[in-house]
């Protein structure tokens, strides 16, 4: 039986409570003589039922949801829905399920009559959608309900109408096809206010179509249709299909289905919460202004705003187009971990360890999004997510980069690829810096993503200037497919020197010029984010003219020549004037903000989590003034983007690299105090000491750059860079070794 204190009872009490408190509020100003307490009376049962019905059936789409769930519970393989006037006039749901017994019809629409639950404990082992026995009853309190049904082996069916929970007449024999048909007419006929509100707003048909679309992709063993009354064409029409992707294609269209990546998590108990998740998420080619999250938890269609937000954050941080994702996700977890009984329409559920679950799902989506190269990538591996042993658990990829002699049946050992572009295990860092804690990389990188996303503002609508589009198509058409493949799948090993990184792609080792690569990436991203930048606010706005002058002085090979100073000042002035004329354009399209006093105060964010080297601001401004062709729109955008690209590129810091020989730069000479060496008498001896402050500045700058190369540049390149063909021959990529050749050498030794 239903337990005392169930949420339904609570909800009803709340309604009563609200009614009473409103009474008090509406009474005239406080009487001078104390008023007698109002008399408490028992509400008529029909009023109670109507109030409760209004909770369960909030609008036409909630009635459709309940009816379709009943059909699913009845093992139907085909469900069709017809709607008139947004559901207010008529909702008709027909199925081919097991039907309802003749003898059950009299109590079918009474409250708390159900075939799915008989004792409270059943709630924890329940696999049906419904269990409260309320939906049909509720509908009869706020609409006219007619049921036609036939069970197996019967020669005819029965039809009966209900009002306020009871049959209006004895069931009548009638011809019927397999299953049940339920008609709900004149919804809310007796709730004037609700009907009026619903009539005034956009009707529910769109919501109903949306609901059935969602149901159809999850229950792909059932065919669904939904049409307006009298319409020939159905607005949802799904057929039974064995593949989830096919059902998404048939309901949401090819444009969605072709841009999906499979996501999968199988999380063991050790991660803190056991659950399985499988689904599809849109890739970087998918464009939409609205997030669609189709979420099923233990086969129940639910909403989870926390998960939705978490996924949106990943997309906003990873994709430049500001596209919202399409996500279908089915999560299964032990029934005892879900409380399905917290919401009157079961729309929301409460989950045990929700935060951990969301974090794990977020990591999986982020990782797949970063790794995906195109829609062909469906052969993803299951992620066995065990928090504390993430790295060492990968028994298939030994940490040692050298061949261990162990053989796998398929891949010859000299062709075996032992690194994974998504796994830190193959990086030099894994050997150099033992992590202080066991947090998996994904988790820490996510918090960085989160903090960067907080700064995001509402982007302006895209300025679809055709010249920017042309520049972007130029980028596309110059792209080298082989290099693209390499960039997307390579593993960063470490820095070989100040400019070249070692990367591994399949069995080859390359030297990759990070300055060239980052310059090109920043240029491309500037074009892609055109007019959509977030801003970096400079703490000290800097005067343009001084900065430009500084740049001119740095460029000058003969700084002692005073005659030139005057000239430099003139050039700086002219450049400043020139830039001042362009402030609006620079601000609107590039988020480079110069205030009315001629101070530079804002710069664009080109890649999240990355700020350029501020020592290069003077050079950047000079370059804007000197190199940009301002008259021609396309050339101008290209010039500014290239200047930004060069400024943001990951150049070696201006301070020499203190590791190795560079350390000489940080030594200074100072007098040695005489008492240290009394043998020398009054002679002053000089000694070399390290300038610790400068040294630590330099160490920081270099460490910061290397972090950015590994954590920002390479992941972003994988996702966004379209390497131009010129990079194959201009020394940006140089192959230094291949495992096959090394093997030949080893064999000879
Ligand atoms: P619940 O689904 O919570 O049991 P409902 O009021 O939705 O409560 O339905 C009451 C009962 O009516 C169900 O338990 C089920 O036995 C029966 N029923 C409702 N709709 C159908 C249907 N389409 N086919 C077969 N049986 C149904
Ligand atoms: Mg039900």
Automatic annotation (TrEMBL):
<dbReference type="InterPro" id="IPR036890">
    <property type="entry name" value="HATPase_C_sf"/>
</dbReference>
<feature type="coiled-coil region">
    <location>
        <begin position="557"/>
        <end position="584"/>
    </location>
</feature>
<dbReference type="GO" id="GO:0006298">
    <property type="term" value="P:mismatch repair"/>
</dbReference>
<dbReference type="InterPro" id="IPR002099">
    <property type="entry name" value="MutL/Mlh/PMS"/>
</dbReference>
<dbReference type="InterPro" id="IPR014762">
    <property type="entry name" value="DNA_mismatch_repair_CS"/>
</dbReference>
<dbReference type="GO" id="GO:0140664">
    <property type="term" value="F:ATP-dependent DNA damage sensor activity"/>
</dbReference>
<dbReference type="GO" id="GO:0016887">
    <property type="term" value="F:ATP hydrolysis activity"/>
</dbReference>
<dbReference type="InterPro" id="IPR038973">
    <property type="entry name" value="MutL/Mlh/Pms-like"/>
</dbReference>
<dbReference type="Pfam" id="PF01119">
    <property type="entry name" value="DNA_mis_repair"/>
</dbReference>
<dbReference type="InterPro" id="IPR014721">
    <property type="entry name" value="Ribsml_uS5_D2-typ_fold_subgr"/>
</dbReference>
<keyword id="KW-0227">DNA damage</keyword>
<comment type="similarity">
    <text>Belongs to the DNA mismatch repair MutL/HexB family.</text>
</comment>
<dbReference type="GO" id="GO:0030983">
    <property type="term" value="F:mismatched DNA binding"/>
</dbReference>
<dbReference type="GO" id="GO:0005524">
    <property type="term" value="F:ATP binding"/>
</dbReference>
<dbReference type="InterPro" id="IPR020568">
    <property type="entry name" value="Ribosomal_Su5_D2-typ_SF"/>
</dbReference>
<dbReference type="GO" id="GO:0032389">
    <property type="term" value="C:MutLalpha complex"/>
</dbReference>
<protein>
    <submittedName>
        <fullName>DNA mismatch repair protein MLH1</fullName>
    </submittedName>
</protein>
<feature type="region of interest" description="Disordered">
    <location>
        <begin position="389"/>
        <end position="410"/>
    </location>
</feature>
<dbReference type="Pfam" id="PF13589">
    <property type="entry name" value="HATPase_c_3"/>
</dbReference>
<keyword id="KW-0539">Nucleus</keyword>
<dbReference type="InterPro" id="IPR032189">
    <property type="entry name" value="Mlh1_C"/>
</dbReference>
<feature type="compositionally biased region" description="Polar residues">
    <location>
        <begin position="389"/>
        <end position="407"/>
    </location>
</feature>
<feature type="domain" description="DNA mismatch repair protein S5">
    <location>
        <begin position="248"/>
        <end position="370"/>
    </location>
</feature>
<keyword id="KW-0175">Coiled coil</keyword>
<keyword id="KW-0234">DNA repair</keyword>
<dbReference type="InterPro" id="IPR013507">
    <property type="entry name" value="DNA_mismatch_S5_2-like"/>
</dbReference>
<dbReference type="Pfam" id="PF16413">
    <property type="entry name" value="Mlh1_C"/>
</dbReference>
